[in-house]
From TrEMBL:
SUPFAM superfamilies: NagB/RpiA/CoA transferase-like. GO terms for molecular function: carbohydrate binding; DNA binding. This is DeoR faimly transcriptional regulator. PANTHER family: TRANSCRIPTIONAL REGULATOR LSRR, TRANSCRIPTIONAL REGULATOR-RELATED.
Length: 312
């Protein structure tokens, strides 16, 4: 049999395959089903791991520590799943976590499945990576909010050939009355219902800082950040701000947002939050406390900080 050459992506996948097979005691077929791989692919990865020395009595990979952290995060925050990537100095954290979120979805999405996405730098990076998977598996894509340009740019860069189902409205409109009228429109309400029903939902997690995406995109001003912080805001998902316990805040801004709200998101299944970095520990922790997320994709340092903070 031809030997399988391992690159960095294969190393990460092999670590996960080996962990499930050797540590969790799953069969090769069960591992393949969980990671959306054929049994033959699982077998070849295990063979390659043994031949290369990555697998001895234990998993000889830098991914091992991350897998242990994933288990701790799942247990501590009652997550359905979790992905933690190793730290890497000097790399773009949004790009790396976006890549990790895309890799997770590549392992989970089956032909004909649907994916609903939020917005932000990390989600945009994931969208760019997912272009070929969407094409090959005929994945149906929906937006979770308005803000057409935000989605179109990322899909253009990814050369998507599938027509996405994008809510034809801004993310934030001028008045609550206009927002209410748009949300009653059958075309918009239908798209939102389909987004909520998608097989997976991918969202970014925003921090409360002058560098936050909601500020850089012009939805709030830098001058509004400190009042938000003083009022108890700790993060946002889909331009919906929440407090330290992950509970929705009553803000005039929310009445002008076009998109899925946090109450609806909590009622969904398979909601993936993708975020990392020192400035995201507090917003991620609050989102986890509020059970906004089912699945978390983050980096090692952020994961450890979350576990430490959860003990306070």
């Amino acid at each position: 049999m031809e030997e399988l050459a391992l690159n960095e992506a294969d190393d990460a996948l092999l670590a996960r395959v080996a962990w499930l097979y050797y540590n969790d005691g799953l069969t090769q077929s069960e591992v393949g089903h969980q990671l959306n791989l054929s049994r033959i692919k699982v077998s070849r990865l295990l063979d390659a791991g043994r031949a290369s020395g990555l697998i001895e009595v234990r998993i000889n990979s830098r991914q091992q520590g991350c897998l242990e952290i994933e288990t701790r995060l799942q247990e501590r925050f009652r997550l359905k799943d979790c992905r933690v990537i190793p730290d890497s100095t000097g790399a773009d954290i949004d790009a790396r976590i976006g890549q990790a979120a895309a890799t997770f979805l590549m392992q989970k999405l089956n032909p004909g499945d649907s994916l609903a996405v939020g917005w932000g730098a990390t989600v945009s990076n994931a969208i760019r990576v997912l272009g070929h998977v969407v094409h090959e598996r005929r994945i149906e894509l929906f937006s979770l909010t308005g803000g057409v340009q935000t989605y179109v740019q990322g899909m253009r860069e990814a050369h998507w050939d599938r027509t996405p189902n994008i809510i034809p409205a801004p993310l934030v409109v001028s008045t609550p009355e206009l927002a209410a009228a748009l949300l009653r429109e059958p075309a918009i309400s239908s798209l939102l219902n389909q987004a909520i029903a998608a097989d997976y939902k991918l969202v970014g997690i925003g921090g409360i800082s002058e560098q936050a995406t909601v500020v850089s995109q012009g939805y709030i001003t830098a001058g509004e950040i400190e009042p938000l912080r003083r009022s108890g805001a700790r993060g946002d998902v889909l331009c919906r701000f929440y407090d330290r316990t992950g509970q929705d805040m009553e803000l005039p801004l929310h009445e002008r947002v076009i998109g899925v709200d946090l109450v609806q998101l909590r009622d969904c299944e398979q909601v993936i939050g993708a975020a990392g970095g020192p400035n995201k520990v507090t917003p991620i922790l609050a989102a986890l406390r509020g059970q906004i997320l089912d699945i978390l994709v983050t980096d090692e340092a952020t994961a450890l900080s979350l576990l430490d903070a959860a003990e306070d």
